[in-house]
Amino acid sequence: MTTTAQKYETVIGLEVHVQLNTASKLFCSSANSYGAEPNTNVSPVNMGLPGALPVVNEEALNYAIKIGLALNCDINRFVKFDRKNYFYPDCPKAYQISQFDYPICKEGHIDIDKEDGAVKTIRIHRAHLEEDAGKTIHLDDCSIVDYNRTGTPLLEIVSEPDMNSSEEAYDYLQKLKLIVSYLDVSDCDMEKGSLRCDANVSIRPAGSTELGTKTEIKNMNSFKAVKAGIDYEVKRQIELVESGETIVQETRLWDEQKQMTASMRSKEEAHDYRYFPEPDLVPFTLEEKIINDIAATLPELPEKKLKRFIEEYSLKPYDANILVQDRATAQFFEDCAGKLNDAKKIVNWLNGAVLKEMNERKASIVDLNISPDNLVELITKVEDGTVSNIVGKDILTKMIDTQKSAITIIEEDGLAQVSDDSALEKIVDQLIAENEAVANQIREGKDSAIGFMVGQAMKKTQGKANPKKIGELVRRRLLDGP
Amino acid sequence: MNINELTAHEILRKIKAKETTAEEVHKACVARIEAVDKDVNAFVRLSDDAPDIKSHKGLPVPIGIKDNMCMRGVETTCASHILEGFKSPYDATVITKLKDSGAVLLGNCNMDEFAFGSSSESSYFGPVKNPWNLDCVPGGSSGGSTASVAANEAIWAIGSDTGGSIRQPASFCGVVGLKPTYGRVSRYGLIAFASSLDQIGPITKDVEDNALLLNILAGHDPMDSTSVNLPVPDYTKALERDVKGLTIGVPKEYFIDGMDPEVEAAVKETIEVLKKQGATFKEISLPHTEYAVATYYIVATAEASSNLARFDGVQYGLRVHPKETRKSKLIDMYEETRAVGFGDEAKRRIMLGTYALSSGYYDAYYLKGLKVRSLIKNDFDQAFKECDAIIGPTSPTTAFKAGEKTADPLSMYLSDIFTISANLAGIPGISLPCGFSKAGLPIGLQVMAKAFDEEMIFRIAYNYEQSQEWHKKRASL
Asked: Where do the domains of chain B lie, and which CATH numbers do they carry?
């Protein structure tokens, strides 16, 4: 029996805005930075003052080209800007400078991995450069505007309607973010708004090739919200069709609190943006050399890196995949692997203790301020038995806190394991005497009780006893007989 | 002759010879403004602080600035109610250049609101009058700038020209006005009317002054992407050359039915003068001239509708809230501010331009306008294969009576029929006096040349001017 949901196919296209982290804004020299005092990163140009004129920021253009190349796009050699006219207080010129008929990038694609191991290609329709608007803040009795964000360079990346589930949309967005983050051209932070996503959603009878009436969902401020927003919208549309109603083409806003979408404006209310060529910016033709130079700066992209890590270091795909989620961590891994011929141990540390430190501190690997040499030294000390694995993790924490090397910390804190037999024998004898009952259990063959003795020994020595040695000694004393 | 009636180059010579001082010249100009500007209305406001002229090095010549160029700390309004109270926090590039040259800024010159007009009657601050006859208009939109020079209030002035707004009022006021090549002078800080057509240019009493002032204004500006990075010659050097061997084109389309016969006769007379000086004349054709006015009013109004959208009451200038709520607080404020703030002609052009850009009409109007524009440009490219310059009347008539055309916008638009093409093609054009009508009103001659060949224009204009006495006549006001 087919369920109602199976009767329909979902069709999703995403419009993703990526803020480019250039030094200055798209059309003027105001600083492009987040979090400054309101209305301080401004100039006559981005305030839209009478007489002020835009000048294209080459860095922004280069960043856009870089993203385009990484997304397998064609780069339009003809660079042209257009005006998109609309009234709103956070749009101080009453038009946004954007690109209408000649987007800087067109016809690219991103591959996403399906759960069944298959690869699905999501086509990218176009990506164009435009300026961000300011921020309107609504107070009780008035509204105020912060123009700091005005003129921030944005690349709007528009996909084809190639996704058929919220999961695919989520994966596409993740992959897009990952690729862009490798290029060092954006912070890609949805919470800070440097990555924003609108979704065009429609449904159609399963098997149909015609597109249904779409709605556009805005205001989804996290990856989770994108998934939830699409799921809600699909459900809403199916319910409408099932009850014999028609879907209205409109823009809907996602309400994070209520976990639902609500109508913002219908097609009839949609703006006529009256696009026309921006006369203040003369179109020009890109030199091939510029594109070639940018192509030469492209780093190894995550997909390729993942494959190489699996082949070159014999990593498990799962482990390699975690590593490549962050370009700096992947680089850190390779630097370590060049110094210590044990990729598996390095990955265990990076994806384990180091990742935990990063998450707890909300820090990047760079922020931890430890070098590959530091980590390799620590791993070596754990491997040669100088310190236990558990103590090793504490040392890592201390390394990050104090910026001291593993060896210094081991020496200063006297953390080297006690492996000297005579010293350990004394401890074991003491423990057997103190824990008569447990000793008897071990004698009777309860192997798990040995662990208790090891634990006690670690406690007595503040973790310095070599646990392997303790286990051996307990066994020898109690089982091998005198 | 009073000192304020002299040209800038005459004044500079006198200062150098210690026969006068910059302070004296400034005082004479201010006294003249006080005496006649209540009648002429060339200025909408004067610089309030007495300039420390002694510190002005270079060319300390009093200048009038059209009220659409931003001056730091000074109210700049485009003669519109909607910009009331707007004080620019920055200087337009031309203002920076003038200040660096030692210029003494007299104040903001009156104009048609947002440079929309050919008579300087649409100003929020009242109409400008023609110094040669106060019943007549001075032309527009830079009518305040040209009248201030003709009335000897300013020694020279700057204006802006989108479809003839320097040349046509220069013609009506009997002064010399140049629209440079598009991209020759920075537009940074010029409050835009039509961005692809606007160009700032010098307005002076004679051709030599015009070349001197262009020397100050011209040059590439990294703040204006449409300004062109070409070296700036010393334009006064062009005045040293004669016109022997030059071929000058006379477009047959520029002598039309309904043209003032006195204008036609005066222009034909100049051709005879230049022939005697050794120039050769040739009839040429600019076949798409008849479409110029229509094309202009599509392209210019479309750009204007977008450029003027920022005057919305949010950040600066006028803000009006209606008493009753109609739609929403914001929309009501937008509508009321713009309804109160803009004059009739501004509203007319905003609506025209909005319509031309609207979805469904774009192809039929704006896009077609752009296509015809390139045909008009092509006309000039072809013509300049056969000639070094083109000559004709600046406007079909002399200055008309105040109020005569305000009720009929179309007849007003035709006043720019010979000047509009140069803006659409991006080429330079000058207007200089070539006679007076029986009624005592000046007649203007237009000389156009290839893009960035202002030297050719100055060369022809100077040779003609120096053989005549027109530039020495002063309005008896």
From this structure: 3-248+385-472 (3.90.1300.10)
